[in-house]
Amino acid sequence: MKSNANMILKDLVLIGGGHTHVAVLKNFGMNPQPGVRLTLIARDIHTPYSGMLPGYVAGHYDFDASHVDLRPLCQFAGARLFHDEAIKIDPTKKTVLCASRPAVPYDILSVNIGSKPELKGVIGADLFATPVKPINRFVDKWHHLSERVMAQSGKYRIGVVGAGAAGVEILLAIQFHLQNLLNAAGRDSDKIDFHLVSRSKRILPSFSTAIANRFERVLFSRGVQVHVGVEASTVKKGCLTLSNGKQLELDDVLLVTGASAPDWLRMSGLDVDNRGFITVHDSLCSTSHEHIFAAGDVANVLKYPREKAGVFAVRQGKPLADNLRRALLGRPLRSFKPQKSALALISTGDKYAIAARAGIVVEGKLIWRWKDWIDRRWMGKYTSLPVMVNEEKASYDRGLTNQETLKEISAIAMRCGGCGAKVGANVLSRALQELSPVSRKDVLVGLHEPDDAAVVEVPQGKVMLHTVDYFRSFIDDPYIFGKIAANHSLSDIFAMGGEAQTALAIATVPYGVEAKVEDTVKQMMIGAIEVLNQAGATLVGGHTSEGAELALGFSINGLAERKDILRKSGMKPGDVLLLTKPLGTGTLFAADMQKKARGRWIDAALESMILSNYEAAKCVYRYGAKACTDITGFGLLGHMIEMIKSSEDTSGVDISIDLNTLPIMDGALETLRAGIVSSLQPANVRLRRAIRNMKIAAENERYPLIFDPQTSGGLLVALSSDQSEACLRELHRLGYFRAAIIGSVMDKTEHLEPVTLTW
């Protein structure tokens, strides 16, 4: 009998990794809801905490101290993390349309994407100004601003438009950090001018006069020029024109003005206010769609209007999580009444802060330390996650099901093996109907005209290449997994100098109700077909069955001219070895399973894994590659030894590898230092006897990487030394930015060990 323990009955999808949603994720991690699949669609893998952004800009916090890493948080919550940007909601079909992936279906949806400055009133703002919100995007632009200041020898002028708490605080933080940088470089820190533009008659208009007066004093003492009662009218390169006609010569203009929402919310047919924010009831449920919720800056709670501030978004976390559960279970929603006011803690850039609440205003370094303690405590809730004990799975709440779903669950429990384990024809047909395999004239019978088997013609003068690969999923995104599985399977064909002709898919999909199985198959195969089509390989059929875990592989047929086949053999003394992709997938994903990998490390690793070897193979072939193989499960050393053994039929060769030149994925050294390696690493390490200077080399921290098993790894290529540099430049131009020359081929010696490691 099949277990229903992990059956997916409903999908809860969260758009955006804002302050409210991180609380929802933590809530579901602490108290999972059996039968509910949680998915986060996030444009950024690391979400900045708004309370610590000024401190980050000022240099008091590093990136990780001020950003919530969404990947381990999602793992803790049992949530899928889709790194993409939502661009529209289809409430009728109940799907989220994304910028670069298939639509994501939902049963209940929540939106927490923050806000952006209103740019419509400032001519040229979209071209010549930098919005501070969304905060995620400002972080990258802030680093570029710092670089521009340090690169300019003369005076630099910065203007901030918007004199609310965010504008004042960010200006003072920027000033503090840039002056410190200039002082450290032995340069005059007074050569930066700062301007603050306020539409209101005074700065900090939503705060008391007492607070405003204190900050006016700070700004005056630091030489900031304040322009009140005027609006920004036009921004051009090097100039900001105000509504009174005055022109300010500025090198950079930052906008911290009134908030607005993205246009796609209105275009999705949701009820929104005059600024585009989703209007919600006091339950945080949309006023127009009962299956959609919104929180944080993007929501306008009609009954309780509040200013756009992080403190209110944070407080919405628990009531939102509670009402999302209630909506999933078909229970009445609960009203939420937010606080009328909040403690204001505004820093002055230099570890000094001013606090205010209920008419009481205090300031000092001790206040900043208090603020720092509050901020670090909040961050700790989402960065220091508890280890949860795996308890016996709870039964499903009846509110998640209906009579039809209950019948499906009962049928799954009695599902047969053998051919009875195949995914149903109707489910498979619906899932595959959106696929459009590339058309080839040499495919006579395929998915376009299905039969018992595909019929493929072998062009005259060509030989066929056959390969197969299959593995279970190691990530929670079926679309990205489909891309990686297809790339991995195709690489053997490319490494041999062939072109991919056809592919047969072998897939295993977890047991589930039809709608959820259908979506998983569709997402996975759309990802795969994109890669296959790019390579010119036609998907001609396959087999899909049910099982405990998601898995995918392909049997690939390729074509090549007999004389053009590229083998593992062929290395000659004097050749150089080139690697087209960085190493590190084994240790990184082992760390990811332990929730010890940074989200940005895994994101970069996935980018490398979905980069096809197709163009790299064509490139190295053009430059006269003599031998080639793709680096996969046996690691760099294992596949290198295969090349060495294949060359023994000629004169034989030895190899020298420079560990310092190995391209390494971000974070791989950190995870190795933590002692984290792949479960396949010990088997690969047995090949260390092929290393001549093993004992000394083992002391180098890069040494374990030569045993690290790769998924969808790069090509290891032997080239003539006079072609290697030109080939490397071409690879970089084609997008293989981490490709590197890593070693050389030498005459065979009398030593038994053919590999020498240098550094």
Measured distance between first and last alpha carbons: 56 Å
- Helix and strand composition category: alpha/beta
What's the story with the biggest beta sheet? 6 strands, mixed
The CATH architecture term of the largest domain is Alpha-Beta Complex
Q: Structurally, how many domains make up the residues?
A: 4
CATH superfamily of the largest domain: PurM-like C-terminal domain
Helix content: 25-40%
Query: How would you state the average pLDDT, rounded?
Result: 91
Q: Could you characterize the architecture of this molecule?
A:
- By secondary structure, the chain is of the alpha/beta class.
- It has 4 domains: 10-115 and 261-338, FAD/NAD(P)-binding domain (3-Layer(bba) Sandwich), CATH 3.50.50.60; 125-259, FAD/NAD(P)-binding domain, CATH 3.50.50.60; 418-563, 2-Layer Sandwich (60s Ribosomal Protein L30, Chain: A); 567-758, PurM-like C-terminal domain (Phosphoribosyl-aminoimidazole Synthetase, Chain A, domain 2).
- A 6-stranded mixed beta sheet has the order 33-35-32-36-34-37, with helices on both faces.
- The chain is globular and about 85 Å long.
- The protein starts with 9 loop residues before the first strand and ends with a strand.
Features:
FAD/NAD(P)-binding domain; 24 helices; 759 residues; 37 strands; six-stranded mixed sheet; 60s Ribosomal Protein L30, Chain: A
